[in-house]
Amino acid sequence: RQMCIRDRPKKQNELILPCRFDDIKLLTSGYYEILINNLKGLEDAKGNILYDPKYEEQLVFEKHIIVKNQEKYGVLDKEGFNIIPTMHDLIQQDDDNNFIILTKGKREKIK
Fold it and tell me: Mind listing the pLDDT tens digit for each residue in 48-65?
């Protein structure tokens, strides 16, 4: 079964997101999380794919996305480009929006 999203009938029931995903979830940020084979990707409200489903986990923040693939974490910008490569053991965000990165037992803070 594949999912798609259409707008409301007053706009002619226009297709917004095509019927090619296993699931689609509207996130509070206004983006859509798209899933294929349990991998996650992201689309904007206009149906533009920011990146195809290829991550096991993603956390969408105001200006960036923390992603996980094959037990490694990285950070993307809102256009899907790498800010921090997906090669770290853990990445978190602190209350001041700094990244806390753990790699091979070493902890680093990036502003």
Answer: 889 999 999 999 988 899
